[in-house]
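During the no-cost extension, the postdoctoral fellow (Dr. R.K.) reprocessed legacy sequence entries with the updated structure-token encoder. One reprocessed record is reproduced below for audit purposes.
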Amino acid sequence: MTSRRDIAMAAKAWPFEEARKLLARIQRDEAAGKTKPYVLFETGYGPSGLPHIGTFGEVARTSWVRRAFAELSDKPTRLIAFSDDMDGLRKVPDNVPNQDMLRAHLGKPLTVVPDPFGTHESFGAHNNARLRSFLDSFGFQYEFKSSTETYRAGEFDQALLKILANYDKVMAIMLPSLGEERQQTYSPFLPLSPATGRVLQVPIISHDVKAGTITFVDEDGTTVEQPVTGGRAKLQWKPDWAMRWMALGIDYEMSGKDLITSVELAVKICKGLGVAPPETYTYELFLDDKGQKISKSKGNGIAVEDWLAYSAPESLALFMYQKPRTAKRLYFDIIPKEVDDYAAFLDKYWAQSEAERLENPVWHIHAGSPPQEPWPVSFALLLNLVSASNASTAEVLWGFIRAYAPHANPRDNPALDRLVGYAMRYYADFVKPRKKYRAPSDKERAAMSELAAALEAMPGVTDGGAIQNAVYEIGKRHAFEPLRDWFKALYEVLFGQEQGPRFGSFAALYGTTTTAALIRTALEGKFVT
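Re-encoded structure tokens follow.
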């Protein structure tokens, strides 16, 4: 009999592929006598801004690999959410209060800059709290780690001294990646000014490996010799990443395509210093509806709160799960499809074998325990139902749903009840403003008149397949070629849009008699203005 672990070892889903790579690494280490009590995953966060949709994607994807690994090995795992809060404040964000106050603290570590909101001891602490609240709201299991606290506590000291001892080797790796002008002033170490407290981008005059110090000229012109340990200096971003991997013993980390060069350099630094880098994974970036890369500065993306205004987190998770190495368009029009795809995967899950379930996205999204709640109505159907019925309250929609699926109700189907609310909101904001009804052609009018009569002859029928067959036959009799032109005509004339759900399913939900009345109203020209 095939064991569950054997099934997991053969699973083709990408989190299992990544988990097997990680397992092979751990087994190599153990064979070489390098053992530790846990496997360490990491995700990184720059706290100069608020967590965003990319933050969700990275932590979710890392968590899925971690969960898949748990199916392959009994070795405990940990996930660190690391905040680079010792970085200097480079510019004042546009969306925060007390900007004049912040300008006076440019260059200082974020954990030293006062909180412009006045709720925390520093700007870094404020944004770290937002990060933790954000991750907690999705139920992620992680350990938070602050760069400032880790540097100051001396946890990085040995790794920093190792970088210092290999200063020239690190410089040889970094300098070819820099422009000629930057090469003249670059140093992997950024000292904190004893005079101003700022993180300094200054040349290092000399370094003393034995003393563990660097010498530089401070902002006031004073030449200073200062230890690199105890939080009195930090590293530039790319060497810092490598140092963190070494100091903490990171086994696995993901990052976006825009950080490929940073990953490559950090890996080279680790190998150059005789330390095995972690397993890494590069995911693609998101595009807007025009195919342009999403940028926070351009404002052409979707915020997490925007998505969650129109759908539950599961649909966003599905978007993140599918094809992470393919650039995907992230805009509001994709939400209905993601919702309905999620519902389809969930419905399919309960009839699948154990091996098939491990390939199903909902197994990963729900950490192996998907909810067992049927969704008798799709998001696309609900949108058309709102349109046809002009429903202004959820109760109106539930009246149609109960007629179609008598056992469904808000109490026993809370996910569907939430979907009703999402559909009404999405329809009002995105569907209704774009509606463009048209009058039918003579050929279409004749076919629609026949369809109305056929539906009136099917009172109380809730078999969407039977209704769909009748719609097909009428389209064929009226010589629509290709037949999709017939359905396109129905959507444009009845709903003011070019596409929609299966018409038979819609009529079954809305009711055959009321659908016939909808068709006759359209044929009278009442929708065209």
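The radius of gyration is 29 Å. The mean pLDDT is 94. The remaining legacy entries will be reprocessed before the final report is submitted.
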